[in-house]
Amino acid sequence: MTATDTRTRLVLTAMQLFRDKGYNSTSVADVLHSAGLNSGSLYHFFPGKQDLLLAVLDAYHGGIGPLLLEPAWQGVSDPIERVFALLAAYRRALATSECGYACPIGSLALELHEPDRAVRERLAANFTAWIQAVQDCLEDAGARLPRDINRRELAAFVLTTMEGAVMQARTYRELASFDAAVRQLRDYFQRLQRAAAPRRGRVRKSSSRRKRS
Amino acid sequence: MTATDTRTRLVLTAMQLFRDKGYNSTSVADVLHSAGLNSGSLYHFFPGKQDLLLAVLDAYHGGIGPLLLEPAWQGVSDPIERVFALLAAYRRALATSECGYACPIGSLALELHEPDRAVRERLAANFTAWIQAVQDCLEDAGARLPRDINRRELAAFVLTTMEGAVMQARTYRELASFDAAVRQLRDYFQRLQRAAAPRRGRVRKSSSRRKRS
DNA sequence: GTCTATACCCTGATAGAC
DNA sequence: GTCTATCAGGGTATAGAC
Fold first, then answer.
1. Which residues fall within 8 angstroms of residue B50, CB to CB, at 6 or more apart?
2. Phi/psi at A184 (5° precision)
């Protein structure tokens, strides 16, 4: 058990607890107990609880690619379908938690009411990386979306939808709330694609019309 | 100072503090200090802190009409514009708080990770009343929206947008994030209205085309 | 109904042996 | 680097006088 192992264990444990119980409702003792460690270890690596939070936020940021996007995009190459595959990953998280899941970043963003600059910057960085990934998809979609649609704003709107949808599904404890929101977003995308398609052929590229809504 | 005054003062004070600092970060002592009361008064009216929260949630529920919708809809009669006037009210709340504002219901929904049934029901009731108000607008819009669009789902999607947009504006501390989301929703609505309009005359009812984006 | 005083627990964090 | 023991403060809630 090297030093990095202990540090990593603390971060991973805190990640889980902050996600499941929230930051304020997770005590340092909770983290130590779950990690099977003692007070001295934590304060050896971190000056205080908030610094543990910073490490957790950095871990989320680093994990967006390998732990979120890559699994979600397994076998999905169509850029627009990737956007909805990402949303489907959140749906799975809701489904396997009886709708107890909440986006950990979004939850922290609302739970921490006067966060330090360092915390806020990391929350924002997580959102930005998520939005950028979706924006890349939208740019890959090229002419399938109207030229005058701002890709970044639309990508941010996908995040907006995900966060709002997760919030409602969690509150109602019903997957249907999430599905309804995604259905609306899908409808919006379909209208955008229809508007971008050449006037004559209705919806071009039948390969872009697939399963899912 | 009658009994109800004290109780009301407690609820109003708690409303403000829970909104500004969150539930867990607001101590009973905070509430008592801000209300200028002592411990005995609070526990005379409420068995505990959580019961105060229930009263706060009931107050929000009761206030949706007079404190949220009516001010937001002052001088706005067009049902679709009312939807966006409601969003504009949230924009004002963000603007006057340097983007520190967060929807109190949404924040509680994410902050409280294992809420009692009573709490969850009241959170859901608040969302439901909000959605219903928007749904009423959408139904008033009648044929201006496509027939096959589910009014309730679209209304819930407006809530989704508001919550996600407030969350991002708060995280980035930038009104622009909120505006971008509303712009996307507006675009979606315009496409819906265009799809609902008779083929010949482009957008019918020039009275429905007004200021605002 | 409202006050003061206080019980009792859990919090984040520290000290110092090993 | 990790342990045990502990501190000082704040948390919710209660007791009982007025």
1. B116, B119
2. -65, -40
Chain C positions within 7 A of any protein Cβ atom are 1-6, 10-17
pLDDT value of residue B2: 56
CB A171 within 8 A of CB B124: yes
Q: What is the mean pLDDT of residues A94-118?
A: 97
CB A33 within 8 A of CB A97: no
pTM of the entire structure?
Answer: 0.94
Question: What type of residue is B36?
Answer: G
- Of A155, A158, A165, the C-alpha closest to A103 is A165
| Distances from the Cα of B90 to the Cα of A15, A40, A124, A181, B95, angstroms | 31, 46, 21, 20, 9
> From the list B22, B156, B168, which residue is nearest A113 (CB)?
B22
Question: Would the Cβ of B30 be found within 7 angstroms of any atom in strand D?
Answer: yes
**Mean pLDDT of all residues in B164-174:** 98
Nearest residue: Cα versus C1' of C10: A27
Residue B59, Ramachandran bin (φ over 0: left; ψ between -120 and 50: alpha; else beta): alpha
pLDDT grade for B211, boundaries at 50, 70 and 90: very low
pLDDT (0 to 100) of residue A212: 45
* DSSP conformation letters of A145-209: S-TTS-HHHHHHHHHHHHHHHHHHHHHHT-HHHHHHHHHHHHHHHHHHHHHHS-STTSS--GGG-
Cβ partners under 8 Å of residue B141, min gap 6: B79, B80
**B84 pLDDT more than 60:** yes
SS3 labels along B13-70:
HHHHHHHHHCCCCCCHHHHHHHHCCCHHHHHHHCCCHHHHHHHHHHHHHHHHHHHHHH
Q: Among A129-133, B4-8, B145-149, whose mean pLDDT is lowest?
A: B4-8
Task: Identify the band that residue B197 occupies on the pLDDT scale cut at 50, 70 and 90.
Answer: confident
User: Quick check: B71 CB within 7 A of strand D?
Assistant: no
Chain centre distance of CA A199: 36
Q: Which nucleotides of D are covered by protein (CB under 7 A)?
A: 1-6, 10-17
